[in-house]
Amino acid sequence: MARDDKFASIIGSEQAEPANIVIFGASGDLSKRKLLPALAHMHRWNLLGPHSRIIGALRNNWTKSHWINYVHDQLLQYFPDAILNPRSWQRISHKLDLVNGDLADPEMYQRLAEALHEQGGKKNALFYLAIPPSWYECVAKNLKAAGLADEADGFRRIVVEKPFGMDLQSAQDLNQSLQHYFNESQIYRIDHYLGKESVQNLMVFRFANSVLEPLWNRNFIDHVQISVSETLGIGYRAGYYETSGALKDMIQSHLLQVLTLVAMEAPLTLDADDVRDEKMKVLRAIRRISVDQVKNIAVRAQYDAGNAGGVDIPAYRDEAGVAADSNTETFAAVKFHVDNWRWQGVPFLLRTGKALPDRVSEICIRFKAPPQTLFDLHDGNVLNNELIFRLQPDEGMLLSMTAKQPGLSTDLRAVQLDASYGMDGSGMPEAYETLFHDVLLGEAGLFSRADEVEESWRIVEPIMKAWAAEDASISTYTAGTMDIDGMQELMHDCEGDWRNLSAKHA
Ligand code: BG6
After folding, report:
1. Residue 103 confidence (pLDDT)
2. To bridge 429 with a disulfide, which of 95, 317, 421, 433 should be the other Cys (CB 3.0-4.6 Å)?
3. Burial (0-12, 13-18, 19+ Cβ within 10 Å), 350
4. Ligand 1, atom 15: nearest CA belongs to which residue?
């Protein structure tokens, strides 16, 4: 199959109704790296309605031609195909519009209301808040005051990025204020992990194959590992990361969301609320622990100077903007238990970190070893079957089985049934394309509901509290290694070891 055909077959071809796509923070980092390329890609595949508009809401006092040149330059860097084809660029540039002004100035929203294009008697609008969360309430309030939350003449949807709060209280406050101005059904909380191909495939794989269901429980599964390992350090993001750390940045959001998809029951239908109800049940079933118990289920560490992925990385405490005595964790691993009928006794181990040896994200379902060892074992690990969902790189699935080594002996070896997508990532829709597409179609299944976000904060709060109360300096690991104190102990009741996260299939 040609790359283009593969893409078309993956994303499907349902075109959304035309809409005004308004990006607040349109000259920011997220916008240039992810949002503009995603929209250009969708445009190319005819997934944006023909009369859709991309409206930058900017504080820079730019002219329209400056904005168009800016988008041109960013696409040249992040999605050059859109620019190199002059017809494609011409058609995208005709969709671009802008509104300048201060986010706190109500007049700016009046101008925005006037700038919305009418398509077929409707003024559909999607408001994407690619701005710091401290601005969310102000923007929502002003949108509402300008009549822009009102759906009388078309849909109005607001998209917010994580972090949704920095703890339970602030998440509740944020939800309350957003819900004051918009209905919950108009609010789309993005967790970009849910837009990843393999994460979506997890649902399909689980619920479209009857062969898995009998095995998908405590009788056959020993434990589950969900890992996101990154080679980069925190780079220029100290301002945010110092207030966050690996637990809040990744585990509270992305990794717990992935856990719910592994553990949930089949929803009644694929309607957003049916799916989210099932995910909520999993979150509610996660065992609550006291602050004193945290040391038994969670470890954290911070990177020291080293070399990760071929790049020299300074110690976290020497990164620009990081406090010299910072105890912010750049690695976190947590062992959760889901106390329900299906999962009682099955540990779910979640780990994530920066400045690690390889960039790999995966879910590993490790099955129990066979009850009896009939064969000579030369490699102690080969008897546990593993089902791996690779989120990145090499998206796809692998089933590792044990087979006979060809020859006269009955030596064993691990073999892998490999269902990689084989697309080297290049033809795959980016998570942000999938998510934009769903917002435009009004499909909310891949977005977190308010109660899910709050429940996730409830789950991690004891860990936050325990770590905040620790006097001792955080332990360190050399950048480019995964030598983390205490990590091994988390596996004490699991069969086998932590998976070796290598960018090559392991
Ligand atoms: C973001 C986190 O939500 O996800 C970042 O804030 C992290 O710290 C990123 O690097 C990882 O996303 P991905 O898609 O590159 O795995």
Report:
1. 95
2. 433
3. buried
4. 230
User: Is 378 known to be catalytic?
Assistant: no
229 lies in the same domain as 324: yes
Which atom of ligand 1 sits closest to the CA of residue 354?
A: 10
Domain CATH number, residue 278? 3.30.360.10
Q: Which atom of ligand 1 is nearest the CA belonging to 391?
A: 16
**Inside any domain, residue 499:** no
Range of the domain at 9: 3-161
Kindly name the residue from 43, 223, 254, 437 that is annotated as catalytic.
Answer: 254
- Shared-domain flag, residues 198 and 156: no
Whether omega before 163 lies within 30 degrees of 0, making that bond cis, reads: yes
The proportion of the chain whose per-residue pLDDT surpasses 90, expressed as a percent, equals 73
Of the residues 141, 161, 181, the one at which a domain ends? 161
Alpha-carbon 387 to chain mean position = 21
Give tens-digit pLDDT for 165-174.
999 999 999 9
C-alpha 327/C-alpha 321 separation (Å) is: 14
Are 311 and 358 in the same domain? yes
Residues 147 and 223 in one domain: no
Residues 227 and 125 grouped into a single domain: no
Give whole-number Cα distances, 50 to 7, 20, 54, in Å: 20, 11, 12
Q: Whose CA is nearest to atom 8 of ligand 1?
A: 249
The verdict on 355 and 280 lying in the same domain is yes
CA distance 233 to 429: 26
Q: Return the residue whose CA atom lies nearest to atom 5 of ligand 1.
A: 249
For ligand 1, mutation pick of 34, 190, 193 (most atoms within 8 Å of CB): 193
344 Cα: distance to centroid of ligand 1 (angstroms): 30
Reply yes or no on whether the pLDDT at 219 is more than 60.
yes
Question: Which of the listed residues 226, 250, 328, 448 should we mutate to test ligand 1's pocket, taking the one with most ligand atoms within 8 A of CB?
Answer: 250
For residue 82, is pLDDT > 80?
Answer: no
Residue 453 scores a pLDDT above 90:
yes
In this prediction, residues 66-95 reach a mean pLDDT of 88
